[in-house]
Amino acid sequence: HPTSHMREKTLTMETLNPHVKAVEYAVRGPIVTKAGEIERDLQEGGKQPFTEVIKANIGDAHAMGQQPITFLRQVVALCTFPELLDSPTFPEDAKKRARRILQGCGGTSLGSYTASQGVDFIRQDVASYIEQRDHGVPADWENVYLTTGASDGIVSILRMLVSGQGSSRTGVMIPIPQYPLYSAAITEMEAVQVNYYLDEDNCWALDINELHRAYQAAKQHCQPRVLCIINPGNPTGQVQSRKCIEEVLHFAYEENLFVMSDEVYQDNVYSPDCEFHSFKKVLYEMGPEYFNSVELASFHSTSKGYTGECGFRGGYMEVLNLDPDVRAQLIKLRSVQLCPPVSGQAAMDVIVNSPHPEEPSYARFHEEKNAVLGALAEKAKMTEQILNGVPGIRCNPVQGAMYAFPQILLPPKAVEEAKALGMHPDMLYCLRLLEETGICLVPGSGFGQREGTFHFRMTILPPKEKLKVLLDKVRDFHIKFLKEYATLEEQLR
Amino acid sequence: HPTSHMREKTLTMETLNPHVKAVEYAVRGPIVTKAGEIERDLQEGGKQPFTEVIKANIGDAHAMGQQPITFLRQVVALCTFPELLDSPTFPEDAKKRARRILQGCGGTSLGSYTASQGVDFIRQDVASYIEQRDHGVPADWENVYLTTGASDGIVSILRMLVSGQGSSRTGVMIPIPQYPLYSAAITEMEAVQVNYYLDEDNCWALDINELHRAYQAAKQHCQPRVLCIINPGNPTGQVQSRKCIEEVLHFAYEENLFVMSDEVYQDNVYSPDCEFHSFKKVLYEMGPEYFNSVELASFHSTSKGYTGECGFRGGYMEVLNLDPDVRAQLIKLRSVQLCPPVSGQAAMDVIVNSPHPEEPSYARFHEEKNAVLGALAEKAKMTEQILNGVPGIRCNPVQGAMYAFPQILLPPKAVEEAKALGMHPDMLYCLRLLEETGICLVPGSGFGQREGTFHFRMTILPPKEKLKVLLDKVRDFHIKFLKEYATLEEQLR
């Protein structure tokens, strides 16, 4: 029988792991929670000054109406229910791939665990894809690890790299603005976050001098060992030049940094004067002394590109120049999770081994792929143009990825009001936008930005007509917001 | 241009995160690597004293030939390729479930991210399932979180609970023998592993006195805050009695422990005199003072039971009595991973919402389910009987789960030889077994065992005929092994 003492909770805000407490993840932060509440209120017949919440906070293509690539879904459905392999309604090339994937699975079932690194021949297909992408630079499939989305791979590599205490603690260099997975993982692992600022005045380019500055400053209080790059940029949308990449790799070589290159938007390049260069290809072109020594992990995902298959949680990483003993440790670490989802592995295989010209699904596949990428390019342009037409908003070209990250000039009165509320000024702005228009964006403070500047991130994923409405609403709101917070003097003008 | 210095690797065994280095995970450890090497050698025409490697090291049902449940695969295939919803070859109840799942997905696509906790109505289905399983004990769907297999949920909860330094560091009580995910996570998080030993002489039952002993001893050097239970047991196969569970919960109540109850084998109970009782149901029956206070997380998975869908990485956890602020922290922590794989969520939904008696797939579903569970019950019995017929092997009844964990008496000469090789004696045994017979088991040392005792874990998953061959080979090997290592005196006898 229970004793009469009042039982205390074991897990409270006081006893909670303090590093978990310190984690922030804006992409699904308080503003998104608020959007969900408003959405439920609308569904239950509540009154709002709008009829629909538009979630432009996350790169979630299908949720915004993008259609799946037929061939990919055919292959995964065939793997899931192999009786369909006898059905005449599925094309032969889809069946061929499904049979091959099932041959790589224990008991020819998608329901078996795979090796911790993923199915061998899917890793081989990934390696062939990388070779082709990089115009023949050799890729060894043993360096390829399939992952649960890209995030999972990024976290695994960071976990290996974080060690030391005090001034020898691992410093992780990340761009500002950054994708908040990085800051969240660094916080939770108690690593030291080392910020290098992208150059907003120069289309968010990476400035090698700023990298040097950040490194030298960090060396005073930690051991910078990791350099994270996001190219094309999230949230910034910039595409790095080949020259820039070479400078960065030279720097990493000189300073003995482990390079983590987040290249999940490698298929999302829109500006005609930009081209995606993989860090690996550039490293190769710098010569064997670089190619055989710089430790480089590159990440890719089924969630972005033209497929947008976020829900499958597919991805891979290629890790170069890992010490052989360390490689065994990485495999061990990943084996504790058993294996990445096998349907995600199958989806990844379709992306790296898409229909060949002589196959029946070739035409449809490329039609669908080009339609998605063409529409994204148009929307990237439209977003930049409309936002730059708003007084007090300045938006760099969306060269790639899926986001605009415009700077917003906020009136001093609004900044003061936010501070009085203990809130980031761009959070106040985004909250007001959500409440008045139903549009959910993420405040720039969630990604990091130079002190005194304010931004928001929005995806360019909604269908063109809807995106136009959204941008018009943002413009109207912004103008109204500026008026509301104008000084008396400005108002009387 | 590169400078002439020889670039050192950044990530070496010296700089690697030492907690990663310390992790061990025997289920996919060195013996499994060795098995893979031998398998490849066989495929390449190498000569071995056997023609096939049998991997009985892991609970991987489909890899051992178990067929998927048709209804589950139909639903997931329909969700993956919704054009099939028009196909007359799929039953209406499968279509109904697929349509409903897609309604819960953004853009009605399996390719969208879901909420971090999973699709709302799948969580509701899980809650209804739990209520039914527990004969009406109320379940709140807001306490349900879908996960990437059970492991992912277990790691999340542990990550919240680990804090403090020195003698206030979190102690995590785990059974010995245990499933090595627990020891791996504890090591990596630098928590303190607190062992309580299951009673091998009493069918691996949990002895409440041993729990008290372990707790009191641990209090001297850490802060025991978490009690992990595996029921039915992995690797031990025992099913806890209702009385035992009540004692454990009373203990957790008194000592303010957070209870983690790994119940992934809840559908795998074979002994006619055993019954699965969920920790939650027993807690409820102990009265509101218990039910409204003990913090309890329970875990389930698509990978075990009668479905064996490991590759989908589906699972859920139900977390009771979490402090509301802490709950928000848990959601935040999980949101960094974005969401569990959506096809795994769909698979989980089928398990908790299987065909009803009036639906067309009911008969086939139950036929398939009963065939799997019936065969497992037979194989559990057969495994116990054959192993107990071998001199020097003693096997407790396999009351539930999917494994036998027999004790093996090893000759002193074998123990000495292993020690000279710097190897656990049961590792030597399992390596020899693998090399001579092609059978891959996991040494007991990978799960933990009382000092001086030796075991191995084997799954009972191979088809009956194959399992019989496997067990006969183990018997023959064991007898030969005993002879080989017998003392001269014994040999002359």
From TrEMBL, chains A, B:
Catalytic activity: L-alanine + 2-oxoglutarate = pyruvate + L-glutamate
Residue span(s) of domain Aminotransferase class I/classII large: 92-473
EC number(s) stated in the UniProt entry for this protein: 2.6.1.2
Enzyme class: transferase
Pfam families: Aminotran_1_2
GO cellular component, one term: cytoplasm
Signal peptide: none
InterPro entries: ALAT1/2-like (IPR045088), Aminotransferase_I/II_large (IPR004839), PyrdxlP-dep_Trfase (IPR015424), PyrdxlP-dep_Trfase_major (IPR015421), PyrdxlP-dep_Trfase_small (IPR015422)
Pathway where this protein functions: Amino-acid degradation; L-alanine degradation via transaminase pathway; pyruvate from L-alanine: step 1/1
Cofactor field: pyridoxal 5'-phosphate
Keywords for the protein's UniProt record, in alphabetical order: Aminotransferase, Pyridoxal phosphate, Transferase
GO molecular function: L-alanine:2-oxoglutarate aminotransferase activity; pyridoxal phosphate binding
Keyword Cytoplasm: no
Gene3D superfamilies in alphabetical order: 1.10.287.1970, Aspartate Aminotransferase, domain 1, Type I PLP-dependent aspartate aminotransferase-like (Major domain)
Quaternary state and interactors: Homodimer.
Family the entry assigns: Belongs to the class-I pyridoxal-phosphate-dependent aminotransferase family. Alanine aminotransferase subfamily.
Function according to Swiss-Prot or TrEMBL: Catalyzes the reversible transamination between alanine and 2-oxoglutarate to form pyruvate and glutamate.
Protein name as it appears in the record: alanine transaminase
Organism (species): Denticeps clupeoides
